[in-house]
From TrEMBL, chain B:
Keywords: ATP-binding, Nucleotide-binding, Transport. PROSITE patterns: ABC_TRANSPORTER_1, ABC_TRANSPORTER_2. This is Glutamine transporter subunit ATP-binding component of ABC superfamily. CDD domains: ABC_HisP_GlnQ. The gene is glnQ. SUPFAM superfamilies: P-loop containing nucleoside triphosphate hydrolases. InterPro entries: AAA+_ATPase, ABC_ATPase_HisP-typ, ABC_transporter-like_ATP-bd, ABC_transporter-like_CS, MetN_ABC_transporter-like, P-loop_NTPase. Belongs to the ABC transporter superfamily. Residues 10-244 form the ABC transporter domain. One of its GO terms (molecular function) is ABC-type amino acid transporter activity.
Amino acid sequence: MAALADDKKPHLEEARPITIDVGDGAAIPSKKDVGLFTAWRVAFFGAIAIIVYLVVFKPDPYLDIIKFVPDGILVTFQVTVLSILLALVIGLFTGLGRISKNPLINGISSLYVEVIRGIPLLVQLFYIYFALGRIVQMPPLPSAVLAMGICYGAYMGEIFRAGIQSIPKGQTEAARSLGMTHAQSMYHVILPQAFRTILPPVGNEFVALLKDSSLVSILAVADLLRRGREFAAESFAYFETYTVVALVYLIITLFLSKLISIMEERIGAE
Amino acid sequence: MQNNTRRKMVEMKGVVKFFGRLKALDNVSLDVYDGEKVVIIGPSGSGKSTLLRSVNRLEEINAGTIIVDGHEISDPKTNINKVREEVGMVFQQFNVFPHKTVLENLTLAQRVVRKRSKSDAEKIAKDLLAKVGILEKAGEYPTKLSGGQQQRVAIARALAMQPKLMLFDEPTSALDPEMIGEVLDVMVKLAKEGMTMIVVTHEMGFAREVSDRVIFMDEGKILEEGSPEHFFKNPSHERARQFMRQIL
């Protein structure tokens, strides 16, 4: 007689917690993972100590390098922040599209995700700047932001989709039962809750994007890596320059990972 | 109880619903009149929740017609949101909004759907919270509340829309025994005020106290209907007799 399990079906889904795990970027140092937490401290303070040591005891060429690269850090941040904002907007619509019941919208979003995830970021950068440049010539920075935003939008779309789907179906049903439209229940009920689940992986993507932004140096965008290359080309101090560039990237990504883990703890504590 | 001068709030004719190959509703017809309280009972998987959920189109039916408050909701052209404004629903799992305070749970749809001002919505909300006995929790988040309190918030949230019909889908099944009473009390109060109610429940005490009619479902069909007393004393159908023995 229990063949029709429909009475209980909607409730089973509510018990299933979903965590989104994106294995990209530097590991977020959670206090629970003692090994990683220690590793974070060693790496972060170690990197700072090495830079300070080198600048103080070997000012030639390290002091010159340290003076030359900060302009690049600003550009790196500029590219990263603009790209992530674009990726968030694209990701939201892609995520909504991927769960849409409309076959056309669903098809387009899925196709976008499949195509973009199947092409290396470096090739996408080349494509937008050089190949499409024959049709619409764009300056390097907008090209870079567009390419990175489109690429990361596809990954972000999957995070949004998983985040939205992690909210129990009963929430949508309750909202719709009160007379809310699909859009209203998304905006007022589902997305604010999904946001908490989405935030850590989005932070992780931010760190990953910051690292990948070094690829834009090939488009004549004067980011951290590009500034390093320029310095090295003039001074021939390749070893010294790239050591500093690597350490600066490491310090930035470790710092951001830490910020994300603090943010995550705050959300969890609420 | 069939009084033909009374208005029909819900009119279901020949309703069929499939889940894949399973026939969850098998040619079900049911009328519920304005002000009537109908209790639906039946074993797990008998289709009673599906029947209830099809009344506000949370389940789309495959055949038949359903008319709610004069609107044919089985017609895809009907604006279901307009109908749902008038039909409150209470779920087994409460489904309160965890990211909103108790008060905000009650005001959200009033503001967004009914377009009431903040002060109007809050006044209605506070009156209802007082009525269900949790006004002092207005500023809390629902996760801090017990199951019974959450369910009372959910009932008040549905009532805040001032619906014409209330649907209850096993409202006490997920509650600890000591909290069932406080939720049933609210429902009894509501019934005595004249609300039209369709309630899926196993609480026969509630059925006896307030319901006009009890409907017994099995395998997607309505097998028997009658007064609560009829079901207590002498259900005619063997399946109904068996079921009553199990739950009493």
